[in-house]
Each structure stands twice: as C-alpha cells, then as structure tokens.
From TrEMBL:
SMART domains: REC. Residues 161-188 form a coiled coil. It comes from Streptomyces machairae. It comes from the Bacteria. Keywords: Coiled coil, Phosphoprotein. The keyword Coiled coil applies. This is Response regulator. It holds the Pfam family Response_reg. The modification 4-aspartylphosphate is found at D55. Residues 6-123 form the Response regulatory domain. PROSITE patterns: RESPONSE_REGULATORY (PS50110).
C-alpha cells in the first residue's frame, strides 16, 4: 500500500482552511491543519510533509517569520512552501516571500485548479523521492544481509539484482513521465530543479546496480544514496 503524502495548511481563519481542504481533497492525500505559525512549527517536529501552504497575514508569528524558522531547521528546510496572501503590496512584498524561501507566491482570490495543479506536482516529487529512498535502503539491506530478507529464503545474487533493477526501473519510468509533464507545463523553476535532483539520484542508484553485475564490480563500490 502506498502511503499518502501529508500537506500542511497554515491559516488563522477556519473558513480559509475549510476552503483549502475542499480544493485539495481531490488529490486524496492527508491534509493537516495549523491555525498559527507556532502550531505549524509544532506539527513539523514530528511529521514529514510534501508541501506547505502558508498564509502570509497571521496574528503573532506571520508567514514570513514562520517560513524563516522552517528554513533554519535541517529537518524541514527542503520542504516546498507556497505562500498565500490576500494583500498585494507590489514587487517588494512578493520578493520578500521568495527571499523567505517560498517556491511560489499566490494572491487571493486564486484559481482553485491552478493551486491544485501546483500542489500535485510537489506531492508527486515527494512520493518519487520516498520511493527512491526505499529502493536505496532495500539495496543496502540486501547487500549487507547477503540477499536475505526476514522470513524468506536467501535469494541468488542474479535474482536479487534483477528484482532490484525492475523496481528501480518502475521509479525511473515515473520520474521521466513527471519531468516531461513539468517541461510541457512550464512549471516553476523550483519544481523543475527538484525533479532534476531526483533524476540525478536515480542515475546514481542505477550505476550502483550496474556495477554489481557479475564481472563489473562489487558491493563495496555501492555509493550511499542519502
């Protein structure tokens, strides 16, 4: 079963949170509410999120300050942030949003279809990264355990490599389709850069598998995919 991605919705107005949930419910992911910057930071301490939708104007800790805290934490600094704002103070205000670490800055009222499409891209990228980490962890586990899995008979090296190669190929195919979609839709530069980073990691894992083919290398040459 594929685990759902979590999307963090941060807004001090309950009606805005309800509207965001209505827009994003079609993505069939886990939507987590936070009514303040402090509450958002608390949620980020324990859960991993694919993307954060962050209201700019909030009492107490506003969106810019919340984003600054998020980007200072090693655990959360790479989570994409989409700023949502009901005000528009011109280019300087928008620049402040990007300077705070946002990948996008959307003024209200916004097109629900556009917002859903933007969020879906980051959810897909997050899911592909999760798959890649799982495949890399499985590869290391299998190599360290000599091809053994809990409750199963040891596999022959050739069969193990074939299985891992097939699983990696499925992720590669999905990543390639996503990259083509980003090219066709002229997506945000941040999304394109994240997809390119994912492809580089997939290439490294593929080279590691190829190096394990008989006569080409050994397990000791497999690079870490952190």
């Amino acid at each position: 079963m594929v685990q759902k991605a979590k999307i963090l919705l941060v807004d001090d107005r309950p009606e805005n949170l309800l509207a965001l949930e209505a827009i994003l419910s079609a993505l069939d992911q886990t939507l987590v509410r936070a009514s303040s910057g402090e509450e958002a930071l608390k949620a980020l301490l324990t859960d991993d999120f694919a993307v954060i939708l962050l209201d700019v104007q909030m009492p107490g800790m506003d969106g810019f300050e919340t984003a600054a805290h998020i980007k200072r934490r090693e655990r959360t600094r790479d989570i994409p942030i989409i700023f949502l704002t009901a005000i528009n103070h011109g280019p300087h205000h928008t620049f402040r949003g990007y300077a705070a670490g946002a990948v996008d800055y959307i003024s209200k009222p916004f097109d629900p279809w556009v917002l859903r499409a933007k969020v879906s891209v980051f959810v897909e990228l997050y899911m592909k990264n999760c798959q890649l980490r799982e495949q890399a962890a499985l590869l290391r586990l299998q190599l360290e355990g000599g091809g053994k899995t809990s409750g199963a008979e040891p596999k022959e090296p050739a069969g193990l490599l074939a299985e891992l190669s097939a699983r990696l190929a499925a992720v590669e195919e999905q990543a390639e389709a996503l990259s083509k979609q980003l090219d066709d839709d002229s997506a945000d530069a941040a999304a394109v850069a994240t997809a390119a980073h994912l492809e580089r990691k997939l290439t490294g894992l593929r080279r590691a598998l190829d190096a394990l083919e008989p006569g080409t290398g050994s397990a000791s040459s497999v690079p870490s995919q952190n």
